[in-house]
TrEMBL record:
Organism of origin: Rubrobacter marinus
Pfam families: DUF2726 (PF10881)
Span of domain DUF2726: 6-112
InterPro entries: DUF2726
Origin: domain of life: Bacteria
Protein name: DUF2726 domain-containing protein
Length: 308
């Protein structure tokens, strides 16, 4: 009698693993699924509470990305809807967050939105993984003296794209932001990603271009973000398009600990992306603008949800 059972993996987890492998293999790293927390972290005499220690012995990470020596770099958790609605799951998530925070392992929490294709060849999850390795290369360059030690890492300063001109790649990585935006608009549709990039810049560039055409009244939205008590980052991007009329971009993402890009930063950028998409629809007569007072009420509601 064959007592083997088929190992079940849902489609989202399979897609998550695929995206992580895509980035990891390019950098000599590995992806391990279903790793017990205590097998990835040394929990002995670690200062964890009894509850955290017991949880570490029982629980596992969905995925752990490790270097070529199999030392963990960061963990990834795929969260379904029950991670927001089920009290026991929420409690376990907080235990995992706490012990990762105490023991220094970055923990990225993702959902199906992170698997959607973005600009270029990267999903949002794939982009996160690429930026992690770019940050590691940046720190290595600081250690060997190629980059000043006091220079902070900002993905938007390093990630690159360009366009083809007569068979030659014209990179616009290190230009001033205004010049980048100008070239992005001039060569829209021709841009080529030649290494991981800022996936949010095209949306900000669209707003700048719309402002110059008179389609909105500011080149940059008014941004606000707060952390909700249940561990979510909520952001609004308010963009005036006419007297007393505004477009409101919104986003809500799970809080996570991932040094290259903070969850607050991601929430703000996604709210700008939402505002840019709505601005395009507004210009096509497919989206209505709100009154300024309505936007003020939304800001107040977001402010009231702030974690105390």
């Amino acid at each position: 009698m064959d007592r083997r059972k088929k190992i079940l993996v849902n489609s989202n987890e399979a897609a998550t693993e695929k995206e992580l492998w895509k980035a990891a293999t390019e950098h000599g790293a590995r992806v391990f699924p279903k790793v017990r927390v205590a097998d990835a972290l040394n929990v002995q005499s670690s200062g964890l509470s009894d509850e955290e220690y017991g949880y570490a012995l029982r629980a596992h990470f969905d995925f752990v990305v490790a270097d070529k020596r199999s030392l963990p770099l960061f963990a990834v958790e795929f969260d379904g809807s029950h991670h927001e609605n089920d009290s026991k799951t929420i409690s376990r998530d907080e235990l995992k967050r706490s012990l990762c925070d105490k023991l220094g392992l970055p923990l990225l929490r993702v959902d199906a939105d992170y698997l959607r294709r973005g600009v270029g060849r990267f999903s949002l999850l794939g982009w996160f993984a690429e930026v992690w390795f770019m940050q590691e290369a940046f720190y290595a360059a600081q250690e060997d003296g190629s980059v000043p030690l006091d220079e902070p890492f900002f993905y938007s300063n390093i990630l690159g794209f360009g366009y083809m001109d007569g068979g030659r790649l014209v990179a616009i990585d290190n230009l001033e932001p205004e010049e980048q935006v100008r070239l992005l608009m001039e060569h829209q549709g021709q841009m080529i990603v030649h290494r991981p990039y800022d996936p949010f810049l095209p949306y900000r560039a669209f707003i700048v271009r719309s402002y110059k055409k008179g389609a909105c009244q500011r080149p940059v939205p008014d941004e606000v973000a707060v952390t909700e008590p249940r561990g979510y980052e909520v952001a609004l991007a308010v963009l005036p398009v006419a007297p007393d009329r505004v477009i409101v971009g919104r986003s809500r993402v799970r809080s996570f600990m991932f040094p290259p890009v903070s969850s607050r930063e991601l929430a703000v950028e996604l709210s700008v992306v939402d505002a840019a998409r709505k601005l395009k629809l507004y210009g096509e007569g497919k989206h209505r603008a709100y009154s300024s007072r309505h936007a003020d009420l939304l800001r107040a509601r977001v402010a009231r949800s702030k974690k105390r």
